[in-house]
Amino acid sequence: MSRPAFRSADPVRTYYAYNAAWAFFGALTTTLSMVYYVREAGLDPLQMVLVGTTLELACFLFEIPTGIVADLYSRRLSIIIGVALIGVGYVLQGLVPAFLAILAAQVLWGLGYTFTSGADQAWITDEIGTDRVGSVMVRSQQVSLAATIAGIVSAGALGLISLPLPLVLSGAGMILVALVLAAFMREENFHRTPAAERETFREMADTFKHGLSVARRRPVVRTLVLISLIAGLSSEAFDRLWSVKILNFTFPTVFGTSDPAFWFAVLALVGTLLSLISSLGLNKLTPARVGASHPNGVLALLSLLQVVGVVAFALLDHLWLALAAMWLRTIADTLAWPIESAWLNRHVDSRSRATVISMVSQANAIGQVAGGPPLGALAGRSGLRAALVTSGLILTPIPALYLRLREVRRTEEADSQHSPTTLP
């Protein structure tokens, strides 16, 4: 059956546009979402934590099943469904400022995210090949950062009119993106199991087992799953508590206001601009390391900078020094993501690519669900600084885990001389 003529968009341009739209509408929602939860929905601190926990639990529960759907049926269909669900979740929480409605929105948001997680990376890798995917992901990250800046500025402007407005508009925008993808996104290099040969549950089980086997057998994949778990153990507490520490400072008055909502938009904008500049600089100055087949050295350095950023943020009592430490952590994390994603994709075959990538994401969700509450309890018992320092110390094994892969690489290269068919 021939492909419809209207579905002819170039995969790389489609991937850039998709990530730009995702980043823009995501920033439109998240920039002032915390302010909205407090001022419009009247959530207390416990409810704020439960909102984040609900989102992570949804990601945890649905990550693997939705990844299997992408591997068995269609990456394209999985992405379209996910974007639409996220849009509905955005609209729901913007229209109904009530705790239960916001929880329901997090479930839709988490479910939608898991449909896209892994599927988008697997789709672009299938369409353009593993040789090109590294540079495309780095460029996509830069496009996304630029779109995020536009989203932050738009959220600030719309928030002056109405706090729910940016949330509702972002949801409508995501639904529109899903419709555009349905019309123009093509999928030519993915071959799903024919209906006559499909045994749904058996195929799903086999795909999951294959993905699990890949994660266990290949050192790079196995290590990245472990790193994702450790990062999750640390990140949930930091992501929830950094704003609490910042709110303890007195903000200067600019343009006649010292409102935290204004300053949070400014801080998000500055952090995104710094990440974009750093990404462009890294890609220009060290393109060989960014696109290297084993970029363990640069990833070890970036993960070490994240540790330094989190611990310094916890210990510093000056507003701008603390912000500099937080931005250091943000920049390092932003730079590491596309490099690590491309590295993972090169070590997974098409059959189970989305499933394995979903396993990595699920490991992060498990870490966040397991690590967030204990660190939150530590903050209540021993203080915010103790919880943030612990969050940073949890990350300390990650640089060593990246560096260990040097020995794995040498072993694999030695083995390949005896067996040309050996997979890394």
Automatic annotation (TrEMBL):
Annotated transmembrane regions: 20-38, 50-73, 79-105, 167-185, 220-242, 262-285, 297-316, 383-403
Cellular localisation: Cell membrane
Keyword S-adenosyl-L-methionine among record annotations: no
InterPro entries in the record: MFS, MFS_DHA3_Transporter, MFS_dom, MFS_trans_sf
CDD domains in the record: MFS
Main location (coarse class): membrane
Molecular-function annotations in GO: transmembrane transporter activity
Domain of life: Bacteria
Keywords: Membrane, Transmembrane, Transmembrane helix
Listed GO CC annotations: plasma membrane
Domain Major facilitator superfamily (MFS) profile residue range list: 1-409
Membrane topology type: Multi-pass membrane protein
PROSITE patterns from the UniProt entry: MFS (PS50850)
Name assigned to this protein: MFS transporter
